[in-house]
Amino acid sequence: DRQLTLSYVDAGSLLFEERIMPVAGRVARHAVALENIEGVAIPSSLINELAHRSPRLASSLLRYSQEIATVFERRLVSLLSRSVEARLSEFILDMAAAYGVPDSRGVLISQRFTHLDIANYIGSTRETVTLVLGEFKRSGIIEFDSRRLVIRDRDRLYRKALE
Questions:
Q1: Which of 16, 42, 87, 88 has its CB 3.0 to 4.6 Å from that of 21, i.e. a possible disulfide?
Q2: What is the DSSP secondary structure assignment for residue 127, as one 8-state letter?
C-alpha cells in the first residue's frame, strides 16, 4: 500500500478527528510526530457542545476547516496535474516558508525530511525523489546539509514549481 502525507503541522495546530471532519472511502488515517510533542485530545461531543454554545468558536472552527479544505484542494490539483519536479519544487518552497532560516548559502530548511517523507507528501516514489533532488543539486538549485535542504537558488526553484 502507498502512503500519502496530507500535511505537516506545527505547535498549536489542530488535528481534526474523523467524527468532526469525516473522510469518504476506506482511508487509514494517522498522525506521526517528527519530534516530541504534547497533545490534548478533546472528545468530539465536547467540541460540538462548545460550538453550539459559542458562535465565535463555531465560526473559528468552520473557518479553520475551510482553510484546511483549501490547502487539500490545492494539493489534490497539484498531485493530479503537475510533474514530479513541479510538486517537489513546491514542497521545498512550502517547507522553506514553514521551517526556513536564513543561511549564508541561501535558506536552510531546519526540519529534516527523508526522501520517503517527501515522496509520501508529493505522491511519488522515494527513488524518483532521490533522482530529482540529485538533478536539483547538480544544477545548483539546492544542496544538502545533514539530511536538511538548503535552497541556493530560490528563483529557479520557484520557476520549476510553476512548470
A1: 16
A2: H
